Amino acid sequence: MTDIFKIPASEIDNRIARIQNRLQEAGMDALLVLQRVDLFYFSGTAQNGFLFIPADGPPLLLVRKYLPRARRESAIRNIIEIRSPKEVPGRIADFYGRLPRALGFEWDVMPVNEFAFYQSLFPEQRCVDGSRLILKTRMIKSHWELLQMEKTARISSRIFEYIRNTIRPGYTEMEFGGIYEAFARKIGHAGRIRVRDYQTEGYPWHILSGVSGGMVGLLDSPASGQGTSAAFPVGAGAKKLRPDEPIMIDLATVFNGFHMDETRMFAIGSMPKEALDASLAIIHIHNEVLDHVKPGVPIKDLFHIAQAGAEKRGYADPYLGPPEYKVQFIGHGIGLELIEQPILSVKETTLLEPGMTFALEPKMVFKNRFSAGAESVFTVTETGHRLISQVPVEVFVC
Amino acid sequence: MTDIFKIPASEIDNRIARIQNRLQEAGMDALLVLQRVDLFYFSGTAQNGFLFIPADGPPLLLVRKYLPRARRESAIRNIIEIRSPKEVPGRIADFYGRLPRALGFEWDVMPVNEFAFYQSLFPEQRCVDGSRLILKTRMIKSHWELLQMEKTARISSRIFEYIRNTIRPGYTEMEFGGIYEAFARKIGHAGRIRVRDYQTEGYPWHILSGVSGGMVGLLDSPASGQGTSAAFPVGAGAKKLRPDEPIMIDLATVFNGFHMDETRMFAIGSMPKEALDASLAIIHIHNEVLDHVKPGVPIKDLFHIAQAGAEKRGYADPYLGPPEYKVQFIGHGIGLELIEQPILSVKETTLLEPGMTFALEPKMVFKNRFSAGAESVFTVTETGHRLISQVPVEVFVC
Fold this sequence. Notes:
The structure is a homodimer.
Chain A (H helix, E strand, L loop, with lengths): L8 H18 L3 E4 L2 H8 L4 E7 L5 E6 L1 H7 L5 E3 L6 H9 L5 E4 L6 H10 L4 E4 L1 H9 L3 H24 L6 H14 L19 E4 L37 E9 L2 E10 L5 H19 L7 H14 L16 E5 L6 E6 L11 E4 L2 E4 L3 E4 L2 E5 L4 E3 L8 E2 L1
Parallel strand pairs in A: 1-5, 3-4, 5-6, 9-17
Antiparallel strand pairs in A: 1-2, 2-3, 7-8, 8-9, 10-11, 10-12, 12-15, 13-14, 15-16
Helix pairs in contact in A: 1-6, 7-8, 9-10
């Protein structure tokens, strides 16, 4: 029952200092953070409340519910209790002696109606978008954060091992998802995958077997799968796993809030040659991209390296989805949310920096037939890259 | 692999007609629906796209990805493909010969930045909030929808039976959650619980055993539990289930998009008298509320009936949470999302109407000791209520 996991004060101080630099650069006087993951990132607690971060000076954590737990979890020094959000402006004015002029909010996630409410609480303030500053700050992972992600990677690696040992014909995709998730929960998987965008689906049961892998759908991903119904038309469905077919498992794992996102190809018995060739090609592409990772490289270069790798191997057609539905990225940042900045997209000109941490996921879709993919999490180091993922990068024929 | 589940055309037509009435009453010329569940409700497909609903005339479904699946799933007659949201205004103008003046958006879920984007696409339109009209339309369930919810209720009932047969000491809360969810997925549970509000947590593993049930936390619920870490500090945690302690399991189930939300008290071996008395009292309160359900009753009356029931039995103190943290509701609408309108709250003056469908969940929290609760889903009929839930309303000593 003890909370052994806690974000250290040094981490919190460093994050606050970095966002304060960004606030000053942007001419913003303060941020009011309330989205749960952002709040956890900057304060160490995800309780119901607000973190007010001035461009200069100490932050103030205002907790609606539940103060004792927030105090235990958070390294923020100034923590007070409020009964209603309506108290926020008054309590800030009391603590700092004044209110900020330009106040940032999380415009990328905060709904229009909710923002109107907060704007009404701060009628004299210029309420602006603070989300870009937050996302940029979260983009660079610290040594401590990478250690946490390695813990998640160990759990994920054990789940993949379990999958290798238990996969067998006859299970439906969803049934098998439930089986390995039961094991996953037992060893620490927290179940709920955090995604920032309200329309993005995040879940650990993205199992696309055989023809399911050939199904294009709503996801901004090369293949969506069958899903369980028109209401949730993505990921695992009612199709049974069969011997001798390619099975793509894209597993999202979360432990203490830190995510892993890894994809491997499986087959029971044997994998048909065409699928095996494609699966090996995608591993080569995955590895070629990693070989080119180092600080200073424009992110879009990685996209083009992967593209060239697919073309030279004759896979231009299925690569990143069928011709009319190709996605424009090969991976994404990852951390306290499954998908973070930057995106490894065709148009991203940002340069790689040490500490940026990505899920790299080149994939191919052979429409109405199957998918092939490989995905690992890596971080950018001073000289190149380091894999955080611990799952062997190979095709698993079980 | 066949999609046997489909929302019938008659349902879609009826929903469109009802929202069109509301649009006309509100003087709104059209709605642009894009949130996934709303889109599914009004079109039958949850693919990536937009449903344009004029106040009068046929709706138009614009699909980004993936058109063939949207066509299979949707009973909407006019379906076209678009490559980018930027095409939406032009395609609407082409189809209808003009653009609406007042256009409604889902302001309760659409982030500020996303709304700014759509507003830029419709510079001449008056963009307004359409979410209230949507939520009110969804509030009343049809005969067909209730049949779907009964299917979910059957699955949920089997999961509760499985829980009764498999619960035992030594499992951690989260481990046991994984075990029963594996069974649940096998018989149709779709895994992902839909909640509308971006800060609300929805998941099927709300298992609060013994002291976990006494833990107040961030949830707008009497108890939050321990959770797996500060990053997800609600629901099941690492505490092991023990004999002779009260265990509250609040199970959310979803099948074909339709949710159930049901709570029962369990004990392994025996339940301590104080917890058993409280558990039976909460069942009596639950039943008393049901006895008062009929069309025309103001919703807040149900809240007060429950309150009086708790007081007369001497439970004023733990009822709905410890004194300083009491919640102000005893249940909520339920359907394609776990929490829908109306809320069974102290201040809700709306009158009960046939077809309104609720999860009724009176609970008590004995701080730092345990929770007691009972929860069932019912619908309002012409003369009273009908339980949709099929789980026996009793305490399960296993």
